[in-house]
């Protein structure tokens, strides 16, 4: 043992704590030979109390950690070693800061210009600045997502969306093997477009009466609702025109989906108690949103017919992808 490198760290009337470096010869060592022993012994009896040997990497880790602690750190170092706990939402904001307006980003950087660049950030930011930061982030995110939905609708209209989507980097989160799944991916990432209707999505695979295109949603008041998703392609007509009576009526495509949803409502009623007990959901008069087709070329009397149809369907609402765009743009206007 190289006693010249032996160092007393602490002692009292009962205990002596020391560290000792070994593997040093003639003042020279290497990473393989260097060891540090931390040991304590009873002063009265000489009996060992504690002993541990650290290798080079462990010594280096200990040194770097101690040198980060603010009160004992090397004044030439710039890192504080302060731990900051974040949520997934905070990490998302940090990743997207480059998308926020320069003025908002400058406000943050100005607040980070002290010696402790991270610690105390929230204390420095005023309520107004935090509110503006949150609104700016949401505004930017919502704008991008609505732009992505418009692009998805354009691809669905003009080409094979499953093949073409992979050529657009901004659409990567929505890539799927079926068109319905592509739009389902967008909706799952953008529940905000429904306002405050829904707070989360449940796993549809747990409840076997539903298929892959169905979304099981938990409403704000904790009850189970459904979203039945079809493609926006014009093949899914919402209304047909009856020239003999000069009126519009639900298309065969829409009638088929309505029948499917009526079956779901019946099954939910039949298995209500089993589903509530097994999956811990509340089921009372569930509602179903049917999303299909486009209404961007609707005339006034078509919108009136759709309004009348929705008002006479119990617990079923028919909405188009253009309705989603409209809802999204109204949400964006509130943040602007």
Explain what the structure shows:
The chain has eleven helices and eleven strands. The chain has a five-stranded mixed beta sheet. Strand 1 and strand 2 (15-22) form a beta hairpin. Among the domains are: 3-66; 177-335. The mean pLDDT is 80. It has 336 residues and is of the alpha+beta class.
The pLDDT mean sits at: 80
Q: Report how far the terminal alpha carbons are from each other.
A: 72 Å
Report the sheet-strand fraction: 15-25%
Name the structural class.
alpha+beta
Q: SSE string, helix = H, strand = E?
A: EEEEHHHHHHHEEEEEHHEHEH
Which sequence of strands runs across the widest sheet?
A: 5-6-7-10-11
Largest sheet: 5 strands, mixed
Number of DSSP E strands:
11
Chain oligomer state: single chain
Which ranges are low-confidence, i.e. pLDDT below 50, for 5 or more consecutive residues? none
Radius of gyration: 32 Å
What is the count of helical runs? 11
Share of helix among residues? 40-55%
Shape: elongated
Observed structural traits:
single chain; five-stranded mixed beta sheet; alpha+beta; 40% helix; four-stranded antiparallel beta sheet; 18% strand; 11 helices; 336 residues
């Amino acid at each position: 043992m190289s006693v010249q490198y032996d160092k007393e760290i602490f002692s009292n009337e009962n205990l002596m704590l020391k560290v000792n470096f070994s593997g040093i010869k003639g003042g020279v060592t290497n990473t393989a030979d260097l060891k540090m022993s931390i040991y304590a012994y009873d002063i009265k009896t000489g009996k060992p109390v504690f002993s541990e040997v650290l290798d080079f990497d462990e010594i280096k880790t200990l040194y770097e950690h101690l040198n980060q602690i603010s009160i004992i750190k090397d004044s030439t170092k710039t890192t504080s070693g302060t731990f900051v706990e974040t949520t997934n939402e905070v990490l998302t904001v940090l990743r997207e800061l480059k998308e926020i307006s320069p003025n908002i980003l400058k406000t943050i950087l100005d607040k980070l210009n002290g010696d402790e660049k991270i610690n105390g950030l929230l204390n420095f930011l005023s309520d107004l600045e935090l509110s503006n930061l949150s609104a700016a982030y949401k505004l930017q995110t919502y704008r991008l997502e609505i732009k992505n939905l418009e692009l998805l609708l354009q691809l669905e209209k003009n080409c094979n969306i499953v093949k073409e989507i992979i050529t657009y980097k901004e659409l990567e989160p929505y890539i799927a093997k079926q068109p319905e799944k592509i739009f389902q991916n967008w909706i799952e990432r953008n529940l905000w477009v429904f306002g405050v209707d829904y707070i989360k999505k449940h796993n549809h695979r747990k409840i076997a009466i539903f298929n892959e295109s169905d979304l099981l949603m938990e409403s704000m008041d904790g009850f189970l609702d459904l979203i039945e998703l079809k493609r926006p392609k014009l093949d899914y007509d919402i209304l047909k025109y009856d020239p003999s009576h000069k009126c519009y009526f639900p298309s065969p495509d829409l009638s088929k989906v309505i029948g499917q949803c009526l079956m779901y409502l019946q099954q939910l009623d039949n298995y209500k108690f089993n589903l509530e007990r097994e999956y811990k959901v509340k089921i009372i008069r569930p509602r179903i949103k049917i999303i299909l087709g486009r209404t961007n070329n609707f005339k006034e009397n078509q919108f009136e017919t759709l309004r009348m149809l929705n008002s006479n369907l119990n617990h079923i609402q028919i909405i188009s992808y253009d309705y989603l765009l409209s809802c999204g743009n109204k949400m964006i206007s509130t943040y602007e």
